[in-house]
Amino acid sequence: MGIWNRTGIAATMLLVGSSFVGTGHANAQQQSHISAEMVEQVRASVKEDASRLETIFKDIHQHPELGFMETRTADIIAKELEGLGFEVKTGIGGTGVVGIMKNGDGPVLAYRADMDANAVEEATGLPYASKVRVEREDGTVSPVAHMCGHDAHVTWMLGMAKIMAEKKDSWSGTLILIAQPAEELILGAQAMVDDGLWTDHGLPTPDYLIGLHTAPGPVGMVVSSGGPKMAGTDQIDVLFKGVGGHGSMPQMTKDPVIMAAYAVTQYQAIVARTIEPQQTAVLTVGSIQAGVDNNVIPASALVKVNLRWYDAKVRERMIAGIKSISDGIARTYGMPEDMLPEYTMKGYSTPLVNDDEMAERHAEALAKLVGKEGVVSQLPAATGSEDVHLLKGPNEDVAFNYLIVGVADPEVFRASMEAGKGFPYSAHNPNFIVDLRAIPVGTEVATVATLELLGKGSPLLKVTKAKK
């Protein structure tokens, strides 16, 4: 998903020379348990594997797949993990893959990488740019490209998996790698849980859950920040029904295009006039689909709505407002009660909340990798959304941390900041680029974050209830 806006990461960094400064760890109480020697070993291992990882990344980038269509990507992941000695389970939640490595007694850590791409046409001009187009379920043909960095996420996980398999004498416990489908749809995590992720496959209950995501900050920047970080979200389809007919005789029809158009404009008053200004609330209409020909009034019109929120009462108010406005407009234009709009609730996720102690401990560990100046440990909540934390399923007391990794060319980032543009590009933008230097760095981050919790001698982190 598109994660950070200009008031997010950019507001927490100051450019200093060719680098940047995070907000530090003034209140950190958790001490890292990964040694400097182990960090150097991770660097050396990633350096040896860098060429292979770049090849994997470029291959996945050139062959992107939309949510629940990630068969090729899933196959790559399954074969790589099997070759490393992981027990592999496939087809969970559609295309999901799970790899399990048991290495003696110790904590159980689940690590997730999402696999799906975006329905966006790439415009980067890179020699390995995507040219893929696919036919979707509704018959439309769509471009497909990794404009959110999930190709990097998969590569980082595979790189980390190789190191963990090779350095089994350095850690103990159980590592569960989850390749998740359909994050962009906000459906994949729940699909895996509903398909028996924790109940039908003999997996132990995790103590920890980790996720990583790209961001258009500079390569070498890592965010590990506790507390609420991302908004809850809903994907809602509103289908307006009407009576179709000839464009020259509108009096013989009941025009759903007009109904949809009025609804879109009136929805804006829900946030502006029914939600307290202090609350976080975003209502976006991302698509209106109706008709084909200029002279035909269609029989239906589809409006696709997206909501963002932190307070469940705000969510309820926005959903109620959408239904009230839509039904009222349909009645105004003469639709009977049995032909009022239909509402389809699709992807849904609660707000993402990082465990404070786990975030602090990761910040301390990652400072040994990228330096204290490279770690941002204080970050305001954003209105982007994720579903990674839904992978907990019924396991409420799992400590969770979601890390952000910079993937932009530092000089490109610097120039953008100096020009007052904020980030050089955003997620889901046709020009989103994962700088190739971010492939080894992200792999190092993933490995250090994992070893911090599973390394021999690392105490089990005390799990704290997420603060809502």
TrEMBL record:
Q: What's in the keyword line of the UniProt record? A: Hydrolase, Manganese, Metal-binding
The terms under GO molecular function for this entry are:
hydrolase activity; metal ion binding
Give the note describing cofactor binding and stoichiometry.
The Mn(2+) ion enhances activity.
Annotated Mn(2+) binding sites: 148, 150, 184, 213, 428
Q: Has UniProt tagged this entry with the keyword Transcription regulation?
A: no
Q: According to the lineage, what is the superkingdom?
A: Bacteria
Domain Peptidase M20 dimerisation, which positions? 238-327
Question: Required co-factor?
Answer: Mn(2+)
**Coiled-coil portions:** none
UniProt-listed InterPro entries: Amidohydrolase (IPR017439), Bact_exopeptidase_dim_dom (IPR036264), Peptidase_M20 (IPR002933), Peptidase_M20_dimer (IPR011650)
Q: Which NCBIfam families match?
A: amidohydrolases
What name does UniProt use for this protein?
Hippurate hydrolase
Q: Identify the species of origin.
A: Nitratireductor aquibiodomus
